[in-house]
Amino acid sequence: MVRPAALEAALMLSLRHIGILLNGQPLIRPFSLDVAPGETVTLMGPSGSGKSSLLAYIGGDLPAAMEGQGEILLNLKPLNALPPEQRGIGRIFQDDYLFPHMTVGENLLFALPDGPRQERMIRVEQALTVCGLEGFAARPPHSLSGGQRARVALMRALLAAPAVMLLDEPFSKLDRPLRAAMRSFTFEHIGSRKIPAILVTHDREDASPGGRVFAIQDDGTLRHV
User: Fold this and answer.
1) pLDDT per residue over 93-108, tens digit each?
2) Secondary element (H or E) of residue 212
3) Rounded distance, CA 183 to CA 59, Å?
4) I need a labelling partner for 131 at 20 to 30 A (CA). Which of 20, 27, 186, 202 fits?
């Protein structure tokens, strides 16, 4: 993912009259929302309510069977016409999706723009230190614990310097103590980098402390809870 130079400053994510339809029927009815730099807004709802589809629409890869409505803007600049790789959006999923044929360091290098390898490796080592995995660059992903893999996946997304982060049930496969640690780690780094973020989950405990939470109702409307 390439982040355009114009997106280097902290940005506001704005959703204008956004809705999701499946076979012409509304999953999520149109709503509007602004997400400030460093803020994580949580969207809750059961499986099939359209949470992940909403993130796919924002990210630019909504399945053909679905239809998205409304405008996606960064500081009032529309993103709808841009392909996914030009939107400056980072994604974290339930699964870490680390490349198994690459080392931990190579996974992180993949997110960095081209440049002198030595400089890029310095950034990789700095990232590993930040997430408590100093010295892990040569390790294969399968040798890491679930929490370590989750931290690497998050740092890989952050190294790409996203303008926006979309979090799709990122903590759901972690045990309770690890979930609490990863929530704190994730929200701290998103907040410190002033990245607007949307988290979708079915568990209220996953929400960012003090952040806004919206629930998808049975009729597809959003309600602030």
Assistant:
1) 888 899 999 999 999 9
2) none
3) 22
4) 202
